[in-house]
Amino acid sequence: MTSTAVAHPNIALVKYWGKRDDALILPDTGSLSLTLDVFPTTTSVTVDDALTADEMVFDGAVATGSPAARITTFLDLVRAQAGRSARARVDTRNSVPTGAGLASSASGFAALAVAAADAYGLDLAEKDLSRLARRGSGSACRSIIGGTAIWHAGLDDATSYAEHVSGPDLGMVIAVVDATAKAVSSREAMQRTKSTSPYASGWVHAAEADLLLMQQAFAADDVSTIGAVTESNALRMHAAIMGCRPPIRYLAPQSIALFDAAERLRRTGLEAYATADAGPNVVFVCRAADVDAVRDALIADEAAGMPADRLIAAHAGPGAH
Ligand code: DP6
């Protein structure tokens, strides 16, 4: 039996950066994000009793080594829940540049969780799909949910999941500064931040406070505060990362120039705020109705240095299905 699922990446407004349990992927803090309507990942899982090992195909090429091992570890979780041992064939197609800091692991594990759960006969509620996706990659638990989602840090495996959070209709403009894979994975960088950055504990306290502020701003439909907290939260995360030894710096000179561009846009009355994940790409957050105006303004802003084909307009997208 083959099950196919589609999931989209999400971009956090309050970031997840740090685990208190590496095996269960329980985060140090809660986070809040927008699931987008661009760059879907489509994954098919076929359970086949004749297979002696799982088979993985990523974008048409057979996967081996640690990416494949991570999938098998994940499928083992699904098999344990389903009480089955049959191996599976996984075929996944990504339309987001893998490893470029555009959250491909989020859409990847969200799609895999939904497809694998169905293929193995598990009938999971949204909350349990979110918990399952979390075990593949923390941020994937938020891509189970459409639109804006809050991932509750929770107390344990049962209470750490994402759910919908109501607020203003937001959109994003993704500035693709560099679409090649990053040198240090977010998983490794997260661990290094915790073990070597003197700012790690400061980050955790700040992120907790930012999440509360963000929830209040969502409830109040206050886009200015949502944006201001988003921008500051991202820079705080990057500050903690830059404090690692040996250091890790994801932001490129052009990334910084794009944070400056957000400030220039705001001076013209256009409410746009910048954020960046574990890579040099910058994502602008704004009201959904302003997405085209923000994109046009960035194209027109010469100092931003972004050609139109590297500025991608995005809106709230569906949860994994
Ligand atoms: C910077 O979810 O990729 O995008 O749980 O180790 O797989 P693992 O990490 P991952 O980290 C995402 C980090 C981030 C921030 C965020 O999406 O909240």
Short description:
The protein is of the alpha+beta class. It contains 9 helices and 15 strands. Residues 7-162 form the Diphosphomevalonate decarboxylase-like N-terminal domain.
Structural account:
The chain has 321 residues and is an alpha+beta fold. 39% of the residues lie in helices and 22% in strands. The protein contains nine helices and 15 strands. The strands form four sheets. The protein has a five-stranded mixed sheet with strand order 1-6-9-7-8. Strands 2-5-10-11 form a four-stranded antiparallel sheet. Strands 13-14-12-15 form a four-stranded antiparallel sheet. A hairpin with a 6-residue loop joins strand 13 and strand 14. It starts with a strand and ends in a 6-residue tail after the last strand. The model has no long low-confidence stretch (mean pLDDT 95). Ligand DP6 binds next to helix 5.
Which features characterize this protein?
single chain; 321 residues; alpha+beta; five-stranded mixed sheet; four-stranded antiparallel sheet; 9 helices; 22% strand; binds ligand DP6; GHMP_kinase_C_sf; lipid biosynthesis; diphosphomevalonate decarboxylase activity; EC 4.1.1.33; diphosphomevalonate decarboxylase
**Given the helix and strand composition, which structural class is it?**
alpha+beta
Question: Strands across the major sheet, in which order?
Answer: 1-6-9-7-8
| Mean pLDDT, all residues | 95
Ligand catalogue: ligand DP6
The best one-word shape is globular
Distance between the termini: 17 Å
Element order: H for helix, E for strand = EEEEEEEEHEHHHEEEHHHHEEHE
Uncertain regions spanning at least 5 consecutive residues: none
What proportion strand?
Answer: 15-25%
Q: Give the strand tally.
A: 15
Tally the helices: 9
Indicate the percent of residues in helices.
25-40%
Q: Report Rg.
A: 19 Å
Q: Main beta sheet: strand number and arrangement? A: 5 strands, mixed
